[in-house]
Specification:
Order of helices and strands: HHHHEHHHE
Helix content: 55-70%
Number of domains: 1
Strand content: 5-15%
Number of strands: 2
Shape: elongated
Length: 177
């Protein structure tokens, strides 16, 4: 830190990194914290998705669509997927947009930040890059069954990032306090 030689009362000319460190700590969340947050999110989503799926299935049968038909399978996948996305965003959208957190991350005191700027990721970019690619890949027959497993196993690398973090340029940090 240097002081202006002409004015001994001048403010220091160099800035400290302490302010940014306290606002956006760089401590990565542990694998356990990330797993627990995802588990909490899954437990919250499970009854919503199962309930919506049952209502959708009964509604399609009541509409006369044969449950054994390809049309039933395609409609159930597309409509069910859209309902799942809507439920996820209804439950987590506000927290993602304002705090970079899902309910599980809020409970676990972790947060999603941009890997390059250590700041919150704009909501649209966060959803489009972090979630949509995996939602689409998961909908692909056969391959989709393995997408979530591969994404989750990537966390065992040194940087503790899942594939969706790599795609979106994000990281999950633990919050202080």
């Amino acid at each position: 830190m240097s002081i202006d030689n002409e004015n001994p009362y001048a403010a220091p000319s160099e800035t400290s990194d302490l302010a940014s460190d306290s606002l956006y700590p760089n401590d990565l969340a542990t694998r356990g914290e990330r797993f627990a947050g995802a588990l909490i999110d899954g437990i919250i989503m499970l009854p919503v998705v199962l309930g919506a799926g049952m209502v959708l299935g009964f509604g399609m049968v009541a509409a006369g669509i044969d449950p054994q038909s390809l049309a039933f399978q395609v409609l159930a996948s597309v409509i069910g997927g859209l309902l799942g996305v809507a439920a996820f965003l209804a439950i987590n959208g506000y927290l993602l947009a304002t705090k970079g957190q899902t309910v599980g991350k809020l409970v676990m005191k972790t947060q999603i930040l941009s890997d390059s700027t250590n700041s919150l990721v704009p909501f649209g970019r966060l959803v489009l890059l972090r979630y949509v690619p995996l939602w689409i890949a998961s909908a692909i027959p056969f391959i989709g069954n393995f997408v979530g497993i591969i994404d989750g196993l990537a966390i065992f690398r040194e940087n503790r990032k899942c594939i969706h973090d790599e795609i979106a340029g994000t990281k999950v940090i633990k919050l202080r306090g």
